[in-house]
Amino acid sequence: MNSYSTISPARLFRIGSTVKLLLLVVAVLFFEFAVQYLVRYRVPVPHLLALLVIFIGLQWEETRGAVLGFVFGMLYGLLAYEPIGLSAFGLTLIGFLSAQLKRHFFVDTYADKTVLAVCLLVMHNVAIVIVAWLTLGLHLPLGLLQCAITGIFAAPCFVIFDWLFQTRER
Amino acid sequence: MNLKRLWTYRKLILFFLLIFLSFLILMAQQRQALSESQAGRIALVIFDPLFKATAWVDERVVDFFDVALSRSSLRRENEALQQELAALEVRYRLLKHEMLKLQSLSDLQTLDLTRSLRLLPASVTAVSPSPWSRTVVVDKGIIQGVRTNMAVVHVTGLVGIVREVTPNSAVVQLLIDQRSAVGVRVEETRERGIVRGLGTPERYELLLEESGEGPQEGATVVSSGLEGSHFAGGLLVGTVHGAKKNKYGQVIAMVKPAVNMNRLEEVLIILGSEEGS
Dihedrals φ, ψ of B162, to 5°? Predict the structure, then answer.
């Protein structure tokens, strides 16, 4: 009896994408923690994890954006010692909305994606501030400077993500 | 038929379920049902090497640029420090001599002058990148004797409290975090109050118990150390910078932190007093 591998190329590609995504999440967390360690609390650090969730929503669809947003948000909340569920809520929201908005607006260039990312980041922060106030009674800062700094990093990050997942048409 | 219809809305249903789940988790925390987060501890243990790696890389990067860019100023600073060290050495010897003389006096032997705290030095290995959480991770944990709710100090004053401990690391919630609060006393007037974090490293908010005139500008604020508090009394919190009254007549003052949280690198964890408490 032959015992050849039955893993199809499509399945291999999916496994490769998942591994890449996991490594990318670790790299993004490494970047965020490394930059924050360097600057301490002098300036806000870019929220690359939020950009990754927006990218997932834009490239794939709502379900993947929302589910991965929730999972990454939980992980981020645990590591950053935030109130758990706060980032999960925000990232689920933008993961879902980025896919929804792509259906209704023409989002093609990196400039379009950057504008959309900044709008979603502001929405993410506003939603988190409201939810934290409603559920925990905390008056959190809006963090608009962080949105602006993250916006600067948006286009280069989308270029790297596109290159990594080969989602950009040539 | 209905199931088929539901299936067409499956994405929306999943989205609202996840949102609802986030709300439930947040509400559970408000009721303190999730205060001892096992998942958080496991995540910290798994990602501890990542934190240590970030700190290691960062320190090498900073060291490289520091040395490369400031060689001449480092030499000058080194000479100045050596002179200062020599002066301090002399002063230390004089003080030691005076202390020995004091100890020889029999009436002082009954006083608790030698009571000292057991302090554990720890290095900061990670800083929370979240704008809504002001916490740091230090490189000491259960193995070194660290437990939750232990106070953390810096040479210049009170830093925060240990909130989560793993075998080799601990999460310290800084006093500037919005979830932090400490019972305090204004040293000059002995007024009592509560200092709360505002999420910003520049200031705390001090709410005084009594509705008087309020503390003077520059007054020193120290921890009160009342029964039930996690902090020992007399730890420097900051200095008063401006005060006003709210609509209920309570005095609210702004306090400038004694510790520069932007430059936190080495801290001391108070394990207890020498008597073993």
Answer: -75, 125
